[in-house]
Amino acid sequence: MTANEGLSDEQRRQQGMTVRRAVLSDQHVDRAIASTTDLTADFQDFITRVAWGDIWSRPGLDRRSRSVAVLTSLIAHGHHEELAMHLRAARRNGLSVDEIREVILQSAIYSGVPAANTAFRIAGEVFADELDGDRDTR
Predict the structure, then answer these.
(1) Hey, which end of the chain has fewer CB within 10 Å, N or C?
(2) Which residues lie closer than 8 Å to 75 by C-beta, 6 or more apart?
(3) In this structure, what are the phi and psi dihedrals at residue 56, rounded to the nearest 5 degrees?
(4) Does the predicted model carry a pTM greater than 0.70?
(5) pLDDT tens, 55-102?
């Protein structure tokens, strides 16, 4: 039996929305919902129920670990727009900039130097304000 077995679609949607907001921020989710169209409505429902309500809500990994897995996958597949979003989410999930640096370095070995190079560029843009300050990035 899985953690979400027996939940109705509406319960999974509610659970997914709670997790989605916690990980991505209310502001991000509100923008996504506001830009939903007839074309994208089913997709928004799908990712809320399945990605956030099912997978991100499972008890087997904490959110920090899920963020590491997501960052690695996004780097490997070149999903740069999603990478920027999930770099910010990883910080909300407790990863430091130094830990994110290590994830990107690790990905260079398995996903390639060009992928890591792009990831470092995106991370530099996302964390520009933090990197301009002191060295303590926790």
Answers:
(1) N
(2) 83, 103, 104, 107, 111, 115, 116, 118, 119
(3) -65, -15
(4) yes
(5) 999 999 999 999 999 999 999 999 999 999 999 999 999 999 999 999
